């Protein structure tokens, strides 16, 4: 219905249905006009040609008679008076005049049909050229005249005039013209109707797609177009549209899951703080007890503010306005700095944390703070998921136009079904354990967005019980 509303606002001539209909009707009418007109012209010229041939033939007969048998008066009379008068259809009349325009022989009845003096005037003006002329009763005649030598060698020159009644031919042509007009009018009425039906049928899928698009909102993202019976192009349009809805639906799902996760993760520390404060306030406490409560609240607040700053970081990293501040960074030194930072906590867990032996000095244009944060997140994960006695190794190297940073551990590893999801925000393989280890589930998501900011990518390979290796690949111009 909303489609109708918008269609009504568009001018009629600007609709696709109208344009298709108009185009189809115009092309159809043009073709019909062309076909009927050319048929008519062919018919006309064939009829004219046959009349001309007939006249030329008659002229020839009379001329031959005059030239070869000038004294065969009977033959001439038969040809001019009898044969022509005997015809019932397409009657023709012949008149033979001498040099002084005195009639010698005339087909009987000719004077009643044709104005003879006008005929004489006109044939004089256009000798040997057939032309049309009106008869005395309004009939149409086709007239020609020619000079004819009498005898050979010739003794004088006579004039032959022939007029043939072409009224029947004219009537036939008039009937044809009426028919053609009727056909044209019929086409004129029917073509737009057919065109409109065809166009409407053709654009029905477009209307359906538009309708779906119009009432698509976040609440009915699951609706799809059923491209049954659609022509190929529109089926692929519908398919593209459906795929767009798939992606939108997935993003929407992710975003709503994300908000639910945020709410949940914010609520936990806030609830903890509230609970502790409430319990502490039930009765008077000693200074030490208050200190314990405050310390625990502080811990929760630190968690909260870490979580909020992680979220803020991710939100900013997504903004297209975010820039990386590249500077020349010695990657091996950067890894050393990260190692130094995590050394104490690794030692506490009985884990050895080293940079790979023989790591070459790799220098590249990077955002130092961001890359340090990414590597830090990886090392913190490795420390959290490697049991005592395990080891973590940081390594780097340069290939063609990318640099590679690797963090490997021989810790617990990640199950294959969880592996594709570890970069999702708030995703944790083992929720209860990770909560204890203080993770927010945003660490790898942050690593991934730092790589995206650098135009690089992150790969993870892991085997349960054997360990995990995360590789960062960053394209650089002028590494080393
Ligand atoms: N080196 C690793 N070894 C085993 N599991 C890992 C490792 N790194 C990441 N993971 C798994 O991936 C999940 C997501 O990591 P991350 O995004 O950093 O979240 P967090 O560390 O806050 O839980 C972790 O919860 C953990 O289960
Ligand atoms: Mg982490």
Describe the structure concisely for a colleague:
This protein is of the alpha+beta class. The chain is built from 12 helices and 12 strands.
Describe the protein's architecture and organization:
By secondary structure, the protein is of the alpha+beta class. The chain folds into three domains: 1-215, Beta-Lactamase, CATH 3.30.450; 243-317, Helix Hairpins, CATH 1.10.287.130; 323-475, Heat Shock Protein 90, CATH 3.30.565. It is 57% helix and 17% strand. It is built from twelve helices and twelve strands. It has helices at 2-9, 16-68, 73-86, 110-113, 116-125, 167-214, 232-281, 287-318, 331-348, 368-384, 431-437, 443-453, and strands spanning 92-97, 103-106, 131-134, 140-150, 156-165, 327-330, 352-355, 363-366, 391-399, 402-409, 457-463, 467-475. It has a five-stranded antiparallel beta sheet with strand order 2-1-5-4-3, with helices on both faces. It has a five-stranded mixed beta sheet with strand order 7-9-10-12-11. Helix 7 packs antiparallel against helix 8 (287-318) and helix 8 runs parallel beside helix 12. It is rod-shaped and about 160 Å long. The two termini are 64 Å apart. Residues 1-7 have low confidence and may be disordered. The site of magnesium ion (MG) has 5 residues, from helix 10.
